[in-house]
Every structure is written in structure tokens, then in C-alpha cells.
Amino acid sequence: MKKILVANRGEIALRILRTIRKMGIKTVAVYSEIDRHSPHVIFADEAICLGPPPSNQSYLLGDKIIEMAKALGVDGIHPGYGFLSENADFARKVTESGIKFIGPSPHSIEIMGSKLAAKAAVKAYDIPMVPGIDEAIEDVEEAKAIAKKIGFPILIKASAGGGGKGMRIVEHEEELAEQMKRAISEAVSAFGDGSVFIEKYVASPRHIEIQVLADEAGNTVHLFERECSIQRRHQKVVEEAPSAVLTPALRAAMGKDAVKVAQSCQYTGAGTVEFLLDENLNYYFLEMNTRLQVEHPVTELITGIDLVEQQIKVANGEDLAFSQADLSITGHAVELRVYAEDPLNNFLPSVGNLEVYQAPEGEGIRVDDGFEEGMDIPIYYDPMISKLICYGPTRSAAIQRIREAIQNYQIEGVETTLGFGQFVFEHEAFLSGNFDTHFVKQYYDPKHLKAAQEERAKIAAQVALKLLLEERKNLKVVAHDTTNWK
Ligand code: MV4
Q: Structurally, how many domains does the chain consist of?
């Protein structure tokens, strides 16, 4: 490939463009009117305006992007994450127009986009699944019988759902009919597909996902796990690799199963297989994400592999240059998503101007961002400002480094999740590795940040007072000297 277009914005567009350039390939950016001066646009060799800020008039205009790509002689399109990245129709149209889609086939995207189709695909591969059913259910009496068999509490899930949308917990038989009716109507209005199914509810799971890579020749490897349990309302906030709780044997078993999941849909490129891990370290396949994930950098830091480079090589028809035996984990990486959100005010988006923006620098610190000082955070898109990723030889070294990096990260003009991240990285449950997906709900209260803020204000006041007193002393000396000096 000689020229690649990145159909995305913000930090991920810039991160992908950097690898494309590193590979000696020409870069094309796209942007909406409000992103005209964004770093990803400035960085690229060429850039195309797609239209007004709303996504459906810019970054979601697949046909327009393909048309522009053809006009510029682009031979590959990278969709990043979000927007068009998991749109099978877009992937198909890109390929049909003679351009390489840097991602899996439309077939893989379609199968894994439906939870029921995914369950059907992996059925023959002997992958551990949460007890439940693998077909859509409509009849309430039938649902009751199944729920009684697997035991309450159960979870009703939408087949087309994702990120927790359309999920309902049912604790008792009496609520089932009502909850099922709601789940179906929610699924119809949100996804245009009312198929729901039932699973046993795993009460205190960890969210562990395995990164996989596959080439067109059928070589499939895994790049170990990422721990993503620290999230609020299905939005991940802190991720790390490796997980503090996986043993080498468990890691190998989950890795092997993730590879099988990828093979079940003839997967190519980079993908992520999600598992739930219960308190007894039993794991269950949940779903597969057919895109590059936000948290991919932690995997890059512990494996030394540039995942975007691998995506491009695979899309170009090249075989993977390494096998499973060549891969190993070195050190530990932690990531904090820095959102323009107010952790003191229920994480409400806090858009505005980045009056001060200074990212930390140093050994073992990586910041993936797409904004600069003075820029506005637009209201139209996801409010993530950047990802702060720190690496160290051990978990505690990586955590120590990110705590210092957070202190050296200066952002003013908008509220951010930096302080919230500090709360996580100082929390005993996080430090001991003894946490699950309920961490935020269980431990976080804005009062913790308020207390930390007041403590900082107190120290600042004391330092200011000390400086003032010293200055007064100095002034006195000067005044005294002056009077005696003839
Ligand atoms: C579950 C579960 C418990 N039991 N399935 C949430 C999003 C979607 N990917 C699947 N999710 C869950 N499925 C069973 N059978 C709990 C969750 C879940 C969750 C999973 C991963 C990370 C964070 C989560 C937060 C709440 C619920």
C-alpha cells in the first residue's frame, strides 16, 4: 500500500497516522468543519473536509469517504474505533471499490456483531460459556422454565446489544415477564432487532479480554490479556496488562480459547475476545470486538508489537512474521482514559477550552492525545481527551509511574478524570489486585476527591504563607541594610 486514509478523528486518528508514516506510506486524514485545525489534520500529508460537525454529517458518511478515497488514489482505509469501524456494509463497500479495508472481513464483523450468531459460531469449538441459552426467546413461560433451570439471578441480553445496552438483571421469577417485555422493546427501538436470550448472571466478574492477531493464511496468535474491570456504566476508565490475577496456566488456556473464537469466524487482523472471570477463576466467553480497541497501547507496551502496523501488514496480504512461541510479556502497563468529565458531578461531560494543556513526559510514559493547548473540546463526539499509559518492569513500578505522571499532567479549562484516576491508583483494592467490575460503584464517592482537593489546597496555602513570610523577612533585611548604608 502506498497511501492510507484514516476514517477517524482525535487521538486514535493521530496514533494510526503516525504508524502509517513510520511505514513509509502516504497519509490522508478526514475531518469535520470543527476539527479543521486538529493535530490529526495538521499531521497528515493530505486532508479532506467531510462536512458539518455532527457525526452523521461527517465521520459516519461512509460513501463520501470512499468516494474521496478513490479520487485521491488511496489504497487502504483504516476505520479506527467507533464510527464506521464495526460496520460490515462499510467494510464491504470499501473492498468492492478496490480499496483494502484495514480490519476483518464483513463476514467476521457480521457474525461477531450478533451475540447469538457468535455463540452459534463458537459452539463447535468447546469454549466455556456462561450457562444459558443460545437462541432468541420470545415465550415468557419458556423463559421462566429456563431461568428456573439455570437458577436466579439471570440476565436478559439483546443479541444485537453491546456495551451493556439492552441488558436486564432478573432476581426473581415474578419480575421475569415484565423485564423480558422491556428488554425486547428496548432492543427493538435501540437496534431494530428484538432478539433476546438468557444467561446466568455472574455477580462479581472481572472483565478480561484477549488481544488476537490473524493473517489471511490462517495463522492466529494471541497477545495475552488486558484487565478492564475498572469501568463505570460500561465505560472503561483504567486498563492494565497483564492482569494481576491470571496464572500462566490460565493465561495460556484463555489465549488458546481466544484463538479458537477468532478461527470460528475466519478472523483476520487485530481483534479482541472478551471474557468474564468469576471469583473462582472460571472464565466464560462473552463476545468478540472486531476492531482496534481504545486500550490497545497496554498490549503494545508489554509485547513490543505495534498493533496498527500488524493490521496494515495483514490487510496487505502479508503473513504474520512471528508465531505464538515468539511472543512474551515483558513488564507491566497501566492506562488511564483522561475524559473531559467532572468526577465530582456524576461524570457529566465538561466540554470547553483547554486553557492549559501540558502532558507529562519521561521514561515509561506514553500519552496518546489529539488535542493541543488552546483548543476546544467539541460537544459532538466522545469527550476523551487522551490516554495516559505508563510502563514499568513490575506492576507496582508502573503504578508508581502513572501516579507521578498524573501529578505532572496539567489541564485547565475543563474538568477531567485525572483526579479520579489518582483515586484508583492509590486505592488498596486496586493495589492488591483484589477488585471486580463493581469497583467504582463499590468504592468511589466524590467526597474522596473533594478531600484530596482540600488537602492540596491546604498544602498550597501553607506553602504560599511560608513564601510570604520569608519574603517579608528578606524585605526587612533589605530595608535595614538600606538605611544603614551610606
Ligand atoms: C454479563 C455480566 C454478568 N453475567 N453476563 C456488560 C457488557 C457486555 N459486554 C456484557 N456485560 C456483562 N455481561 C453475565 N452472564 C456482567 C456484565 C457486566 C460487565 C461486563 C464487563 C465489564 C463491565 C461490566 C459491568 C457490568 C456488567
A: 3
**Cβ 256 under 6 angstroms from ligand 1:** no
Residue 51 confidence (pLDDT) above 90:
yes
Whether 275 is in the pocket of ligand 1, judged by its Cβ within 6 Å, is no
Strand partners, 27: 4
Does one domain contain both 242 and 165?
no
| Rounded Cα distance, 88 and 111, in Å | 10
Does the beta carbon of 286 lie inside 6 Å of ligand 1? yes
**Active site positions, annotated:** 291
CATH of the domain at 52: 3.40.50.20
Question: 195 and 217: one domain?
Answer: no
The verdict on 360 and 271 lying in the same domain is yes
Q: Alpha helices of 81-193 — where are they, by DSSP H? A: 88-96, 106-113, 115-122, 140-150, 173-191
Tell me: do 278 and 355 sit in the same domain: yes
Q: How confident is the model at residue 484 (pLDDT cuts 50, 70, 90)?
A: low
Residues 297 and 152 in one domain: no
Gap between the Cα atoms of 328 and 310, Å rounded? 16
Predicted TM-score (pTM) of this structure: 0.94
Site to probe by mutation for ligand 1, drawn from 286, 289, 440 as the one with most ligand atoms within 8 Å of Cβ, is 286
- pLDDT per position as a tens digit, 182-231: 999 989 988 899 999 999 999 999 999 999 999 999 999 999 999 999 99
In a domain, 109, yes or no: no
* Alpha carbon distances (Å) from 147 to 123, 205, 440, 483: 21, 20, 29, 92
Q: What is the pLDDT of residues 88-100, one digit of tens each?
A: 999 999 999 999 9
Q: Are residues 275 and 392 in the same domain?
A: yes
